[in-house]
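Thread: quick sanity check before group meeting

JM: Hey all, I'm pulling together slides for Thursday and realized we never actually wrote out the predicted structure for the chain we discussed last week. Dropping the sequence here so it's in one place. If anyone has concerns about the input, flag it before I start.
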Amino acid sequence: NEDFSETNENKKRKGICAWKQGGEVEEHDMSKPFVLDNTLLENCERLETGPSDNSYMSEESLSDAESGRENFIDEGGNFWNTLCLLRCCSRKRLIPICVAIADITSGFASGMSIRFFPIFFLDDMSLDPVIVQLIYMLSPLGMALLSKVSLLLSRRIGRCQATVLFKLIGAFCFLLMILSYKSHCHTALVCSLFIIRTSFMNSTQSLTKSVLMDNVPSNERGRWSALEAVNKMSWSGSAAIGGWLIGEEGIMFNFYITVAIQLMATIPLMFLFRVVP
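JM (edit): ok, ran it. Output follows.
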């Protein structure tokens, strides 16, 4: 804990302490007690501090708060410290949870359709196998290009904003691909929309992973990284669901459901717009 000497009453009442958590600056009125323990608030970086009224938590109280005990009371008898602590701790957990939900949901949706695209191209569109392989060769190139674009865009509008934007564009292109096929548009248009759709949907993995790794303790990163294995496993499960939908309603119905779930997968990231830089 830090103890700042009091200068005069005026500065004490108007003092502002600015904290930086995950790139976001938060200001607190220094006339109210707040948490000063840097060891507990791992992701908080104190930028600028005005004089305080020497109301802070003891290490024992902080330990009780961290373990979730209800008998936590700060030294100054003010509940403000408790609220600041809970807000910081809940945010540290909220960010990785939202990112994980978004990734798993998006992976589940992709698994419902990705196994059946070759069948769609070969049976429904009657494409030559060479053309199908050419499509799958161009898609990773588009992903690599758009990954650079998403990185540059994220520096201007934020990582979650860029991810959601690219996901929405990908879902929109998927919907256009379905409609263009049903409208008997040229095969080249349908294939081009598929390549664009695939490139946009899969070019933001580095952004979501960076958000995840930036907001989990270093000793937990291995466990959170294991989510990639969960995503791959969910592909097999969702592919079975996709196969069942195709058997019941047809491949177009499965594609529509995929688009709907991919749109839903962006919602958790929208909650992080004002939290993650």
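AS: nice. Residues 1-83 have pLDDT under 50 and may be disordered. The CA atoms of residues 37 and 105 lie 36 Å apart.
JM: adding both to the slides.
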